[in-house]
Amino acid sequence: MDYKVSIGLEVHVQLRTKSKIFCGCPNDFGGEPNTHVCPVCLGYPGSLPVINEEAIRLTVMAGLMIGSRISEYSKFDRKNYFYPDMPKNYQISQYDKPLCVGGSVEIEVEGRKKTIGITRIHLEEDVGKNTHFENSSGIDFNRAGTPLMEIVSEPDMTSADEAMAFLLVLKQILLYGGISDCNLEQGNMRCDVNCSVRPETQVELGVKTEIKNMNTFKGVHKALSYEIRRQIAEVEKGGRIVQETRRWDPDAGVTLGMRSKEYAHDYRYFPEPDLMPVVPAREQVEQWRRQLPELPVHRRERLVKDYGIPDYDAGVLVADKALADFYESTAKLSGNAKAASNWVMTDMLRCLSEKGLEPAQCKVTAEALASLIKLVDGKMLNMPSAREVFATLFERGGDPAAIMKEKGLVQVSDTGALEEMADKAIADNPKSVADFKAGKAAALQFLVGQVMRLSKGKANPQMVGEMLRKKLGG
Prior knowledge:
This protein has 474 residues and is an alpha+beta fold. Helix content is 40%, strand content 19%.
């Protein structure tokens, strides 16, 4: 029997604000435990929350970027539950009146495009962090009160690959909008995964399970792949899927049951009495709409159109906003968009990967790479020497022309000097000369290599090739 899979994600995103959502404590990662706290985020009796306007703006901006309807009236609610990392024993969140309703995210998997619906985006406060030791546990409330946006998708995804693609596209959008740092290692972006299976002839959705607190995209993919197989196997042997919350054990490669899944009424939601409803002025929302950045999908299309680079190149470049910004600056300054794409896609990404760096941490500036491209285009440097200059630029930065002179890498384009080296290569390699005249094209490349060796890598290979071909009558 064939089965249909339905997957929905609840993505929790910490917002890029200077202070927490309901108090003035700094919204900074790290710090000594329990130092970024105050009576408000610790839930002391008598303390009153005050909403962070920037958190509202960033949530609305996120909604606008994915086509959500911005609510003219939204409110905050108390979600009641007891966990040791929630100092008030309730969480200020949103329930029936969220800030953003609807919207969609377009993904592409194996060349097929698909639209994933968004149910809602609501705003809430994050909880603290538990750390478990051998014989005890500690709680750090520095994170408690961090503004947290929850993006809830429709159950439109049907595979682990689609879920991974959704998370990657969503991360791109949020980074482009400056909504969040989306640093998974710091917990800026986490998600809960809802998954169900059903026979393909069944219309209604199957019983879902929820996998909590996934903080890596690869983990989401592996957990879903396992959970789909587990549910299908359970149904096929006549078992019953129970609605429950599970956790992913990366070491064992399995999901494990934690507790039965709570329903909305279990949380006893009621309006937060200490906060006024949020009623954004229409003029304010339109002003924020005018500030929206270019979406990654639109930027990809524009790079192909404006710079004439392949769609694949454009897709790689726009995956990281800083990388795309770097490329566009380099392309404009150098006047050679394709060369800029080649350098960024190959040498730069390779070096960044080897060093474990982000594009923003690279010492190579757009101005420097553009100058290097101009040196190659102006036949001052050949490609092997240019790569040597780039390696130095990557390590310490600087001016490509100065590095070229420092290393003595100025390309030999003097016809007289090249003539002497070409004649020597021909005289020293009669067999290769004979092979070329017999129609073996590879022999010419060998002779070019000999001239490059004689020039210590400084010769212009194009000039050398043309000169040898002319001398040999090819």
